[in-house]
Design goal:
heterodimer, A: alpha+beta, Ubiquitin-like (UB roll), Alpha-Beta Plaits, 3 domains, two-stranded antiparallel sheet, 7 helices, B: alpha+beta, Glutaredoxin, six-stranded antiparallel β-sheet, five-stranded antiparallel β-sheet
């Protein structure tokens, strides 16, 4: 067992536990995007950053890949952490505004502006599909290719893979292409619909078909209360 | 009306015979003649690839299975295997990546990922000479882009492409770690410092002439030596034939069915040679003393390529050992047991 301090609370967890697992166990929420319980942690999205250490030695680490150490001091929601998290969301919005998951994260974390060059990428390189394919589907049909600006995910040589069984696991888990925001092409990076109550689903007639992952969904609560 | 012109007879040039399919194909730099990709290769059992070369006898190079065998059970060896394939074939043929994934535990995704991640790996056939123009920060501000553009114009290709005659491949790199020399251009390991667009033509010409013709003046590391045969102690110097302006070292050589003379530069540090017959690259050559006809062969293997070394006695004491493989620059100078 390892003893460490989590937001000022003395806690004890089993050796080998990551900070994220421990924090969730003790009820401290840490947002994640590229993390999935069924897959190995990858630390790609940096959304789960927490602050460890004290004073000038304090630093930000990704909690999904960092294993707890004896006497570690962890803060999951310090000012620095919140600021870094907001920046990560802002950058994610800049590259992939059509993702519902990212829009919901932006709403939930009160991100109200996006100051970077707007792009409409279909991939945020979180690696969820690559890990899904390898670890759960045992296929290894897709993987990362090239590097830097040209880094992409796909099959070798961009031809149909012999390993691929068309299971669809990669599409199922993808946060960028799985759920499109109801605003298919948001004019502005931040949809904010869910947060600002003027929810797109309210204005449309059959909002029952739409998926809203806001917890709790503001619009649904209003409608429920009106009934 | 004149006679209808018959179809112009084309000169009967040698036709490129393509042997597609899994057995082999055409392409890459032939490892025998090291020239254009007109030589074909086919795969043989025991993991060997046979090259049907136009200029020389057919030649065998190790195939993927043979290369991978060496690294069996060693974790993290995919890059070493890829390096070796690239060194043998000049690039990474897609078929061989697939073969590699079948021969080892690595999946094709991993192999392809590593092959595309590193810039030194190429999935396309490369030319004989690789021209790297540095566009790192220091070279960039000193005019690297203009140099790259001039290369593109002179060679008629864009960065990342290969000329149609398979002579030059042009690439831009982000830093060569020689910022003080910037803008720097590297051609096959030869550094050209402070390049400007006017110097580009000269670099291309010098590459065509042969980069091994090094400039001797002003380089203290290069000095002439006199050698003799370790068996009969007869001097091997040939004052009647100068190389690099100094008497050359004359030996008899033999490879395959070819026997002839070889004259080497006596400058320690120069690799200039003249030979009666052209020696294919990477061939291991047998050296003989022209006077006592003893084979010059040391028990030591080349530290770089494991080929046998050739010993010669240096006047004034010591033994110089040179690698017997054409193109390998492995050498040792041994003064009373102290290696230099």
């Amino acid at each position: 067992m390892v003893k460490f301090t989590l937001n000022g609370l003395e806690v004890e967890v089993e050796e080998g536990t990551t900070i994220l697992e421990a924090a969730r166990f003790f009820g401290f929420p840490i947002p994640t995007l590229c993390y999935n319980e069924a897959l190995s942690p990858y630390g790609a999205c940096r959304l789960c950053v927490v602050e460890i250490g004290e004073g000038p030695k304090a630093k930000l680490v990704s909690s999904c890949t960092y294993r707890v150490e004896e006497g570690l001091k962890v803060r999951t929601a310090s000012e620095r952490v919140i600021k870094a998290r907001k920046m990560v969301i802002e950058l994610l919005l800049a590259s992939c505004p059509q993702s519902k998951i990212i829009q919901d994260l932006a709403s939930a974390h009160d991100v109200r502006r996006q100051r970077f060059k707007q792009e409409y990428e279909d991939c945020i390189l979180c690696g969820l599909c690559v890990r899904m394919c390898e670890e759960q589907m045992m296929a290894k049909a897709i993987g990362f290719r090239e590097r830097g600006e040209r880094r992409s995910i796909g099959t070798p040589f961009d031809i149909k893979s012999e390993e691929c069984r068309l299971c669809g696991g990669c599409i199922y888990i993808c946060p960028a292409c799985q759920l499109r925001c109801t605003y298919t092409e948001p004019e502005e990076a931040i949809c904010g619909g869910c947060a600002n109550i003027s929810v797109p689903c309210v204005e449309k007639e059959q909002f029952d078909d739409m998926m809203c992952y806001m917890e709790p969904c503001v619009a649904c609560e209003i409608i429920d209360s009106e009934k | 009306m004149g006679p209808i012109p018959t179809e112009e007879e084309k000169p009967a040039g040698r036709q490129r015979v393509s042997k597609p399919g899994k057995e082999g194909g055409v392409g890459g730099i032939c490892s025998t003649c090291n020239q254009a990709a007109s030589c074909s290769y086919r795969l043989k059992n025991e993991g060997l690839v046979i090259w049907e070369c136009d200029l020389y006898e057919s030649y065998e190079t190790p195939g993927v299975a043979k290369i991978a065998e060496k690294y069996e059970g060693k974790p993290g060896s995919v890059i070493s295997i890829l390096e070796e394939i690239q060194a043998t074939y000049g690039y990474l043929p897609p078929d061989m990546l697939k073969e590699l994934s079948e021969a080892t535990d690595y999946s094709l995704v991993d192999v392809y990922g590593a092959a595309t991640f590193y810039k030194s790996f190429s999935l396309k056939p490369r030319g004989k000479y690789l021209v790297s123009v540095c566009l790192g920060t220091a070279c960039h501000v000193r005019g690297g882009p203009a140099v790259a553009k001039e290369f593109e114009r002179r060679l008629g290709i864009r960065a990342g492409e290969t000329t149609a005659d398979k002579e030059f491949t042009l690439e831009t790199v982000n830093c060569l770690g020689a910022c003080a020399l910037g803008p720097v251009v590297v051609v096959e390991g030869h550094y050209f410092p402070q390049v400007n667009p006017e110097k580009v033509e000269r670099i291309i010409d010098r590459t065509r002439e042969g980069l091994d013709k090094i400039e001797i003046e002003g380089d203290e590391r290069i000095f002439p030596i006199e050698v003799s045969c370790p068996r009969c102690n007869h001097s091997l110097m040939d004052a009647g034939h100068l190389i690099d302006g100094y008497p050359s070292i004359r030996v008899t050589l033999s490879f395959g069915h070819t026997h002839g003379w070889l004259r080497m530069s006596s400058l320690y540090g120069s690799y200039n040679v003249e030979s009666e017959y052209e020696i294919p690259k990477r061939t291991i050559v047998n050296f003989f003393c022209p006077y006592c006809h003893a084979e010059l062969r040391a028990a030591t293997a080349c530290p770089e390529c494991q080929a046998p070394m050739v010993p010669m006695i240096v006047h004034g004491g010591g033994i110089v050992l040179i690698c017997s493989r054409r193109g390998c620059k492995g050498h040792m100078l041994d003064f009373d047991g102290a290696n230099i």
